[in-house]
Design brief:
Layout lengths: L10 H7 L3 E16 L4 E17 L3 E5 L6 H8 L7 E7 L4 E3 L5 H7 L3 E4 L13 H11 L5 H14 L16 H12 L6 E5 L7 H18 L2 E6 L2 H4 L5 E6 L2 E7 H6 L4 H7 L7 H6 L30 H5 L5 E4 L2 E3 L13
Parallel strand pairs: 3-8, 3-9, 6-7, 7-8
Antiparallel strand pairs: 1-2, 1-4, 4-5, 9-10, 10-12, 11-12
Helix pairs in contact: 4-5, 4-6, 5-6, 6-7
């Protein structure tokens, strides 16, 4: 659901009425300054994230997809406060009320960190090669003073077994494991503190196709067993189809469509979503040969100089004069779907 300024759908009101609401992001922006010259004067800004709003409920997995440069990873890093947002609100709710992560100091953020954890894209560079697996997985428990000594080793062994590894592997180093096993170690580390929200930043993109399915199935299984919420960042819609409850599609720093997974895949409401879905392979070879691939012309526009009107109109085959003049708002289009397209009601877009 899009966060609006209306009192009935504002984050504060939603938190008071919806006890299942965990995260409410409203108007999130992240601009990077462009500096030039000897004095490094600011001459512009890159709008990596430009007004993103969405909600995540407890136990839900939300897919965040888009091409490289769409801003999805920047959103994840802003949610973790690895990057300081330029504007907007990130409300993380407990049983009673929400706290705005954007306004927290570094000291107060330390108290929130156990509730938010991240799984990184590259399982090779995300693990310290000089630390054993036991030290890597146990570090969050030590830093947060949750366990030590024998109890620490027991909890680390349990976490390794939880992700499909041997509990006796805690004395081995990362180089002794395959890429898929290293990603399992990263998942174990992320779940060490039993977080409420896990942000998975393209966790399978660096893995072989056969291993990708194993990791996806593992995440789905762990979500059922532990009950955490997850924001699954990916560039491939086929990856998120079977594990995400809802999908948000990003383009040039904005969400252009968000909705229930089944609805979005069956009947997309934005031309960009249609183009992404046309690249998703289907298991029927006959039907696959008969499909028409929607090929986007050109590249993603420069985020420091976005086009006027709809940011997608230079690459959209349905664009009309209105699309070049006015920026479309993200609004309800169909059941369980919102899209930012002037022509959604007129178009009959193809899904999978």
């Amino acid at each position: 659901m899009i966060i609006s300024t209306d009192a009935r759908t504002s984050p504060e009101h939603a938190g008071a009425s919806d006890r299942n609401l965990l995260l409410a992001v409203s108007g999130l922006r992240k601009y990077f300054p462009i500096r030039r010259g000897l004095l490094r004067k600011v001459v512009g800004e890159t709008r990596a994230v430009d007004g993103v709003s969405f909600e995540v409920r407890r136990g839900e997995m939300l897919g965040l997809v888009g091409e490289s440069g769409s801003g999805k990873t920047t959103v994840g890093r802003c949610l973790m406060r690895l990057l300081q947002p330029t504007a907007g609100r990130i409300l993380l709710y407990n049983a009673m009320a929400g706290v705005d992560l954007c306004g927290l100091s570094a000291r107060k953020l330390r108290d929130i960190r156990p509730r938010l954890q991240m799984i990184f894209q590259d399982p090779h560079s995300s693990l310290n090669p000089r630390m054993t697996v036991g030290e890597i997985v146990g570090e969050p428990l030590i830093v947060n003073r949750v366990a030590k000594g024998t109890e620490l080793n027991e909890r680390v062994a349990t976490l390794l077994e939880l992700v499909g590894l041997n509990g006796d592997d805690l004395r081995r180093y990362p180089h002794a494991f395959s890429g898929g096993q290293r990603q399992r170690i990263g998942i174990a580390r992320a779940l060490a503190l039993r977080p409420e929200l896990v942000i998975a930043d393209e966790p399978v993109s660096a893995l072989d196709v056969s291993v990708q399915a194993q990791i996806l199935n593992l995440l789905a299984e762990l979500r059922e067993r532990i009950g955490f919420s997850c924001i699954f960042i990916a560039h491939d819609l086929s990856v998120v189809e079977h594990i995400c409850d809802r999908v948000a599609v990003m383009y040039l720093g904005r969400i252009v469509e968000i909705g229930d997974t089944d609805t979005l895949y069956r009947a997309p409401q934005h031309p960009y979503t249609e183009a992404l879905l046309s690249a998703v392979p289907i298991p029927d070879p006959v039907a696959q040969r008969e499909r028409t691939r929607v090929r986007l012309e050109g590249e993603v526009p420069d985020a420091s100089s976005p086009p006027p009107g709809c940011p997608f109109h230079p690459r959209c085959r349905y664009a009309e004069p209105l699309c070049r003049e006015c920026v479309p708002e993200l609004r309800p289009i169909a059941e369980k779907s919102l899209a930012s397209c002037h022509l959604s009601e007129k178009l009959n877009l193809k899904g999978v």
